Amino acid sequence: MKKYSLLLFDLDDTLLDNASWFNIGLARTLEIHPATSTVDPLIFLEQVLQPPKSILESFIRREMSPDAFKKARWKNALSHSDIAFDEALIEEIDALFIETSMKYISTNESITSLLIDLLKNYNVAIVTNGLYDPRVKIQQMGLTEIFCNETIFHAERLGFRKPDPQLYEIALNHFGKAPTETLFIGDSWTHDVVGPMNAGMDAIWVNPKGKPQPTDHTPIAIVSDVTEIRRILLLEEEK
């Protein structure tokens, strides 16, 4: 597909299965730490992933820093588990979670092979929202030769979060590409389809659960797994 020369990928739940590291890593963290060893991990996970609306909205409006948001999520989950906590405990749990969860990220040969083949025909980069450093995830996935630090655009580090057009613009400017030369690939309708399309890019929606389209935006393709983009982007070259 010669129209595009730059591919921008989301990371979590696009190239990386979020449950493979977050859910398992959290359960193991709770098991290891003496303050949380008796906590029901499924209930705790629900509280972490569904913080009060006021906290989430404050973070989205940038009234709360990523670090403060992480701490607020831990506080909310600990409170619902009736665990006495202070700032030191929260920092301990967060540090243990990072150390533990990253061990559950591993290479995916299908993803690696796809990206290596794409790199022969396109520039590739990652544009991601994320509370935890995507560079560590990329290292654990064995993809550092494909995505160097300069091609991993981390929203929290740059000060803009998808779907803020300024975050997409930073990536485009780095490569010297126009929006019309760029294709965004990701699982979030808001962040990876609507945001990029409103910024002038095309998009491919990774939609494993077959969700209905919430708006009338039209991505060039809808796939159930990111590896399916091979037939869309490399078909001509592989003939």
TrEMBL record:
Cofactor section: Mg(2+)
Biological process terms in GO annotation: small molecule metabolic process
Entry keywords, A to Z: Hydrolase, Magnesium, Metal-binding
Native species: Paenibacillus taihuensis
Protein name: Putative hydrolase of the HAD superfamily
Domain of life of the source: Bacteria
Gene3D superfamilies reported for this sequence: HAD superfamily/HAD-like, Haloacid dehalogenase hydrolase-like domain
UniProt keyword Protein biosynthesis present: no
Upper classification of the organism: Bacteria, Bacillati, Bacillota, Bacilli, Bacillales
One Pfam match: Hydrolase
